[in-house]
User: Fold Ethanolamine utilization protein EutJ from Desulfuribacillus stibiiarsenatis.
Amino acid sequence: MSLVLIVGCGSKTTPSSQPDQGGKSTAEEVIKIGGNFELTGGVAEFGKKGENGAKLAIKEINEQGGILGGKKIVYVGADNKSEAGESTAATTKLITMDKVVGIVGPMTSGNTLAAIPVVTEHKIPLVTPTGTNSKVTVNDNGSVNAWLFRACFIDPFQGEVAANFALDTLKVSKAALVIDQKGDYAKGLADSFKKTFEAAGKEVVASELYVAGQDTDFRSILTNIRSKNPDIIFVPGYYGEVGMIVKQARELGITAAILGGDGWGSGPIVDVAGKDAMNNTYYVDHVASDDPAIAEFNANYKKEYNQDADSFGALGYDATKMLIAAIEAAGSTDAEAIRLALETTSGFQGVSGAINIDAATHNPKKSATILEFKDGEKVFATRVDPK
Assistant:
């Protein structure tokens, strides 16, 4: 999800830009919320599910009587086509033509970064469901992007969560790292894991590198790791390479637990690695569909869309509910009042966990989910709270 997608122009309003059922399309009687999602293009699966979650949240609020004294919410959607340039154009259209009071989306970090100059210029709050890159909310110089917020935790936090799970639940003391040397996502998670793991007095016994999209034979680095006999191997990559690494590790007789980040959930990892190889593996995610705490949301999502919910739908739902709660807390549709309400969000109960926004970074402090693979199926293992 930390993809940096670039180039593109123009935007396209989807049929979902029409007023919601029962809503009157006049500025005085409705409140417009925009959705800038990847509805076509390379990551359309992410965007469609995020938009589903957003629309379900709005439907539920409208059915409960709306907000600000009974005003209905109208969802206005725009397709960024999975391209950064299109995301900029979609954001411009939602603000200048559709007159939205806030925006939910995009899903990827690259498309979210492309929206920042527009929302900053026009002073309209944006909440990304899954843009995990730290630069979405905080610039290189440490200044906060005033109009940007997120419903998900950031990349480095996943490394911390993974290390705490390894320490507190799996009770391991020796770890090995396998890192994509050109991937900021992998390096960020690995650095955070190592820092947390070693701070607990435990040892990282090996750190091996590969190049995603280029390397397919990992036996040499895995043989080096096997000689160090770690209790756990942390592999914070994406499903294609990770699947091959897991498969080859098991073929070499490595039985240690293998752990990763949410990149594992971006594709059919079991098809690459094989069911048996994936036993005793775990990864960090934002939500698990079989987590008992979100059973009601899952049922409502499946009833609405005839498909199971996942983290993209859940975070699209949470991001929208966060924005709506901020509008209600502000008591108006004034953009600055909404921004301040988002910045001081505390104790917001989302389906992905309780969310408290850090005013200095606009990042949420929240729990993460650990999923475990058992006989080819991923199942809820536990929630890990921030420390």
In short: The longest helix spans residues 44-63. DSSP finds eleven helices and 16 strands in the chain. Confidence is low (pLDDT under 50) at residues 1-27. The first strand starts at residue 12 and ends at 13.
